[in-house]
Write a structure and sequence with these properties.
alpha/beta, 9 helices, 3-stranded antiparallel beta sheet, disordered N terminus
């Protein structure tokens, strides 16, 4: 049988040292080990889907695994995270590990991404610090717990920023770096291969050269080289500045940002994408030398339907980053099924036309700050007995990706 240049009929696979079978499937290369090539990275980003909290057991686990496989997701974003509530981390990880194993049994190539967000709460003071980490960071090797107060901006800046006892951490503090390293290591240990670091640029107010950020991330990457499934972890963050580069060296493997959708004022409810709208990333992703060693003029990036809260004025044109008074995923969920599917096709085509370095991260699982009726969570899954409130986007996602060869 002859192989077509358009469709590779034979699946070529290699088994990495970590025992993960990966390869080239239907002409798309998903191989990486220790570093990742630009084509392989872009292949993953072109099959990205935000699957928030699926490792928390959110939704129907078996149907989520089915949907991931059915649509062809290769990069599942924000599958596990803590927004505060750090004391529950052990239980969360214990419950997540068998779900990770189930997903990797269905597709060993898929990258699962955790998030280490821009929040720390008083609950971290309940978590013991491993002695080896105390030694690594130069602290006395004596039993103790993480110290919430030692992670904060010393001048009170951004303290209680989220709510009382929940603050933005200061990455220039060694205690903060130690906490982030600990959190990322725990994620890597259950099979996570991507970390989203949220709003870096509110955690760097005393680290504008990102010396401490690079220190923390260097430690995380070193741990991944020894312990991750494919000996690396793909790191990204929201970068309103366009990216973080030091002497030509990019800090992240790829960039990410909200879509930033503008209202169509004479068509209530509808939204469009525009170059240069607010702080959107289109055309602005900075380039340089990546952690994997290759260089680019503009680093590949993801844009997603973000969730950032409730304005209390849903359905109104209030401007700023709200789209018709909603955050992005709530706006999307409040549209008709037909418009949601139409809009995903529009957004995919618009991004590929206006900035080929960008990729639409499809919506798969996301919280709804403004519920649709009594539905407080968006699932792209087709509605079924398993997911009675599915929003029916999975067939459209699959069709969009099937057309992208």
């Amino acid at each position: 049988m002859k192989c077509s240049k358009m469709v590779l009929l034979v699946v070529v696979s290699v088994t990495l040292l970590a025992g993960v079978s990966v390869g080239v499937v239907e002409g798309r290369d998903y191989r990486f080990d220790g570093t990742i090539s630009q084509p392989a990275l872009e292949n993953y980003l072109s099959r990205a889907n935000t699957m928030a909290a699926v490792l928390h057991g959110k939704g129907d686990v078996d149907d989520n695994v089915r949907m991931l496989k059915q649509t062809g997701v290769k990069f599942a974003g924000r599958v596990i995270y803590r927004w505060g509530g750090e004391a529950a981390l052990d239980d969360l990880l214990a419950n997540a590990k068998p779900i990770v194993q189930k997903i990797h049994a269905a597709d060993p190539e898929i990258v699962l991404q955790a998030a280490a967000f821009e929040i720390v709460t008083e609950q971290v003071s309940r978590i013991p610090v491993p002695v080896r980490l105390l030694e690594e960071f130069g602290f006395p090797a004596e039993p103790r717990r993480f110290r919430y107060e030692a992670m904060l901006y010393p001048d009170g800046h951004r303290v209680d920023h989220w709510y009382r006892g929940a603050s933005v951490p200061d990455m220039s503090q060694a205690e903060t770096r130690m906490w982030f390293v600990y959190l990322c290591e725990r994620y890597i240990d259950i099979g996570i291969e991507g970390i989203h670091f949220g709003q870096v640029e509110i955690m760097d107010d005393r680290d504008r050269d990102h010396v401490h950020w690079r220190d923390m991330m260097g430690r995380v990457r070193a741990y991944a080289r020894k312990h991750a499934r494919r000996h690396m972890v793909l790191c990204d963050a929201h970068v309103p500045s366009g990216g973080i580069v030091h002497e030509g060296e990019l800090m992240f493997d790829f960039h990410s940002f909200p879509l930033r959708i503008d209202e169509v004022v004479d068509k209530p409810g509808q939204g469009v994408l525009k170059m240069g709208y607010l702080d959107s990333l289109f055309g602005r992703s900075k380039g340089g030398r990546t952690p994997s060693g290759w260089t680019c003029e503009s680093l590949p990036y993801l844009v997603e339907l973000d969730n950032f809260g409730r304005s209390g004025r849903g359905g109104q044109n209030i401007g700023a980053h709200w789209i018709w008074g909603y955050d992005e995923i709530c706006w999307f969920a409040h549209q008709s099924e037909a418009y949601r599917n139409e809009w995903l096709r529009y957004a995919w085509d618009w991004i590929r036309e206006h900035d080929p370095n960008g990729y639409l991260q499809m919506p798969g699982s996301r919280t709804l700050a403004d519920p649709v009726g009594d539905i407080h969570w968006y699932f792209a899954n087709n509605a079924s007995k398993a997911v009675p409130h599915g929003f029916n986007q999975e067939d459209t996602i699959r069709a969009i990706w099937d057309a992208d060869r």
